[in-house]
Design a protein that fits this description.
The chain has 94 residues and is mainly alpha-helical. The chain is 71% helix and 0% strand. The chain has a single domain, classed as Arc Repressor Mutant, subunit A (Orthogonal Bundle).
């Protein structure tokens, strides 16, 4: 997704970090960059809004239950590995 305008942070990178942003799991500098991008980019802001609503619906539906820390760590490790694999595939020479 991209609005076609140049930004300090690529739209794809912003959308990858949306859940980290929503969960408050991102450092101040990156949070500022994402917030600035969302202020400038309507398509990303719309997608952010959708993701925010999904997060709220899940939170309401789960009644505040929290996954065990071991499961959370396992999921995060798999997500990092999948992102790394996707990044490697994206930069392969064709």
């Amino acid at each position: 997704m991209s609005c076609g305008d140049p930004h300090g942070v690529d739209c794809h990178k912003v959308l990858e970090a949306v859940y980290l942003y929503l969960d408050g799991e991102i450092d101040f500098d990156h949070k500022y960059l994402i917030r600035t991008h969302l202020d400038e980019c309507s398509p990303c802001l719309r997608q952010f809004g959708v993701e925010h609503e999904v997060k709220l619906l899940i939170a309401r539906g789960c009644g505040g239950e929290r996954a065990p820390d071991t499961l959370r760590k396992s999921v995060l490790e798999r997500l990092r590995a999948a992102r790394a694999d996707a990044a490697r595939a994206e930069f392969r020479a064709e």
